[in-house]
Each structure stands twice: as C-alpha cells, then as structure tokens.
Amino acid sequence: MALLEVNNLEVCFGLRKGEVKALRNIDFKIERGERIGIVGESGAGKSVLGFSIINLISQPGYVSQGEVMFEGQNLAKMNHQQLRSIRGNRISMIFQDPMMTLNPVLTIGDQMVECLMEHRTISKQDARNIAVQKLQQVYIPSPETRLDQYPHELSGGMRQRVVIAIGLLMDPDIIIADEPTTALDVTIQAEIMELMLELCERNNVALILITHDLGVVSQVTQRTFVMYAGRIIEQGPTKEIINDAQHPYTQGLINALPQMGVRGKRLHQIRGAMPSLQSVPVGCAFRERCDYAIENCSHNVPDFTESGGCKVACHMVAELKREEQAVKLEIKGGAQ
C-alpha cells in the first residue's frame, strides 16, 4: 500500500457566479521516501492541491469528490480534531513565505517548543533540546542562541531554514513544500534545496515539491507531475520529462528556461495565458495556446496516453501513437 494515495480528487470554490472547479480528476501515489515535483504556471492549481492533501482548503472551497488516503485513512473525510494528529505531526507543510509560518511576537524557541508539546508528552527542557538538534540538522550556527531570537532578527535564508527545522520537528512521513525558495536569492535557493534533499534522503521522508521552476525539480525529485488549469497533463520520471517532454505545454515550459535561449535573442515564451478557471474551454484547456491542436482538441478532454516513458493527456500524442502502431502492424503483416 502506498504511503499516500490521491484518487479522483476534485476541489470546488463556491462563488456568486456559480461553482468553480480548481482541481479536476487528480490521481497519484507517493511511496515512503519518494520525492515528487508538481509544476506549472501560477493558477494551475499546484498550491490548492498541496492544501487539499491535508484538508486545509478554506471556505468557500471544499473537496467535492475523491479521496486522499494516508495509510488507509481518508484525510478528506476527517474532522478538525482528527486532522490535528496528522498535520504537523505525520505530514508537514513548508510555505513559500516563512513569515507566514513564524509568529513575529514569539521567539523561535517558543514556537518550536509549543509545537513539540502539542504532539508529544515531554518536558519543556526536552522539547528545547529536540529543537536545538533540529536547528543543528539544518546547519544553523549557534542554535541555542537562535532559539531566543525573534524571526525579524534572522535573514530570509535563515528563517527558511528554521521553517524547515519546524517541519522536521515531529519526524514526519511526508513534507509538502510549497514554493519554498521563491523569496530567496539564487545562491540561497540552491543551498535550501540541497538541504531539503539531504534531509529527505537521510530520514527517508517523502517530499511533495510544489514549484514553477523545472530546474529545481530536475535536481531534487524522482517523479514529476505537470499541471495546467486544474488538471495533471503529464506525469512520469523527472529525467524523462526534462529530457524528452511529450506534452506541448511541458515542452514550452522547458524551452522557456533561460539556459535554453540563444544569446542575443528573445527568450521563448508560450503565447497567450492560462484560461480562468471560471471559463475553461471545452475539450483540451491548452488548445488555444497550442501549435499542434487538432480537431478533437476542441471537443473532448484528452485521456492519458503512454509515450516516451511518461503518461500524457494530449490528443496529438495519442494520434501519433496510433499512427506509429498502425505502421508497425503494417510492417509486421508485410513481413509475414
């Protein structure tokens, strides 16, 4: 049994103009110690998916369909009290802005000790000792001194390390990291991601990394899910997706990376913009931005097709696979 299994998950937001589906037909599994990446443009539904896993969707949002199974328990059906034993304990979440996680009027030590004593029956001194150990794990110098400091006294990179240490406090089985390096400079970004990779490998912790940066995904994750307009449109081993992307949208994301550009020329960009979730077009949501759209794209939502070691939701790819199969059968028939 997988550590976490998401089945046919749908999330809706009730607005005055009617319901809006933010997530549609999300299916995936993650094993213990596995690292997956969820990528896509802003508005694709990445963060909503992260919040949905631990049932943190606020009204007017709600899980309208599907299940999130964690070791046989459906998190989507749990009440607030039941979820308190899971959130921050078995499943931790790291947010993109550390100041949204850290309380500015409490010291780092107070916040870490409070978290430990909420979930474990230990003394305050034992909790403080564990907090020091976790700060040491994330390579924060003079951890005993840092415990008595307030968040504003630390640099951005140091605050993010503290947030990661808090995420590791309860020795979780899964860490959900939502754009954990967005507010940091490039050098600190690399350090933080190397740190997270090291900690996950050392402690056999599963990681769900939510990001728009394919470069980060390629360095840290083993499998990748590409999202567009609330759906997963391509999934597979990260190396396969980076080296041989099958979906036109994923190809566009990779071609838009600065290192893929030609010196002196404009960077590649995908034309147009992602549709509003209130007006997702019929058929393939990406068709109006796609250079390879065919007639079927205007009428039907594409199913997954296996191609190049990945699963791709694209009518064009499915058509090419059918043509390839037909040619193989023709050659085989001729040989006989």
Automatic annotation (TrEMBL):
PROSITE patterns: ABC_TRANSPORTER_1, ABC_TRANSPORTER_2. GO terms for molecular function: ATP binding; ATP hydrolysis activity. Keywords: ATP-binding, Cell membrane, Membrane, Nucleotide-binding, Transport. It catalyses: a dipeptide(out) + ATP + H2O = a dipeptide(in) + ADP + phosphate + H(+). One of its GO terms (cellular component) is plasma membrane. One of its GO terms (biological process) is peptide transport. It is an enzyme of class 7 (translocase). It is found in: Cell inner membrane. The keyword Protein biosynthesis does not apply. Belongs to the ABC transporter superfamily. This is ABC-type dipeptide transporter.
